[in-house]
Each structure stands twice: as C-alpha cells, then as structure tokens.
Amino acid sequence: MSPYRTDPLRSGRHPFQLFVLFLAWLVSLPTLFGAAPTPGSINATLPAWLAFSWSVALAAGAGIALVGVFLLNRPIGIILEQLGLGIFGIASVVYTAAALKSLGLAALQPAGIVAGFGAACLWRYFQLQGVLNRAQAEQKRRDDRG
Hints:
This protein is mostly helical. Helices cover 80% and strands 0% of the residues.
C-alpha cells in the first residue's frame, strides 16, 4: 500500500505536490528580484503592484508549504503546509480574476491552469484540516482512556 495512504501525516510529500510547489516558488523569483514581465505575458498586462504581489504570494505560499512538508514536527508542519497552500490558492484565484478582467477570454487557457492549481491548493488545505481533526480526535480518545 502507498505510504501516502497509510500515513496521512506524511501525505504532503507526494511528488506532484512537491514539484508544483517548487516550480511555483522558482518562477516567482525573477519578478521578486526586479525582472520586468515578459512582453505579451499576462503579468505585462497587469498593474505592476499586482504582478509583484502575485510573485510575493507565489514565493511565500510555495515556500511556506514546502517548509511545512519537510518539517519533522508533523502537526506544526501540516499547519505550515496549510498556510502556504492557502496563500497560494487565494493568490491564484485573485490572479485568475485579474487576468480574465484584463485580457478577457484571451487569458482563459493560462488563467484556467492557474485557477486549477489554486483550486487544488485550497482543496488540499481542507483535506489537511481533516487530517488534523482526526489526529486531534485520536489524541483525545487516548487521553480519555488514561
């Protein structure tokens, strides 16, 4: 059986999640260090403050989530992973809305992909809350038994 199913406290280490978070963090760096948006990109059509905010949210969200995934203290790690995924997910929804407002249907394909990743992050956020709730309930049962 997969270790991701048998140990829900380790489930954030799924390779797909790790790759997406790492790549999101990596692609946010050029804008954070002052690189201008590529001409013709969605970022080039957005106000500079919004494009920069998007990069900050990507870097922070993905970075915090990755730290949480690898933190040895799993309950704290899951909370950090949740925080990072929440930042990433909300920022993705805002970016999608801004891209569609700025470019209309021309932004549908790239904005749809970003929205999909954002929705997956938010879905995972709530899954992790379930993991924490089950762990807390199990701890309470153990404490009640003495």
